[in-house]
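ok so i was messing around last nite and threw this chain in just to see what happens. nothing serious, just curious
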Amino acid sequence: MSHHISIETEVLPISEICDRFEGEWMLIKILDASVPTGTAPGQVLARGPDRSAMFKAERKARKQEPRALLTILKGGTKFGDGDALRRALARIAAEEEFVSVNPW
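result:
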């Protein structure tokens, strides 16, 4: 079965790309890996409903640009900086008495 694969030329933060194409699989070229993943600028090289088509698109993209930073993500992926998790863990540690789950 053939699936339509779209290509985008707009450069956006990866988190915005994931929000925009929720539910679709995407091959994304990361343009700056020195910033947190969600805020890194990216360009959609291929997108569509079929994950395996993204792997085929990735192989093609690697032939054209072997050193490119590529990732395959499903739209709707959420990114965080870890601060919310650290705050939650600190709150739990302050509120809860330690309980060992080990039987020994």
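not much to say yet. DSSP finds three helices and four strands in the chain.
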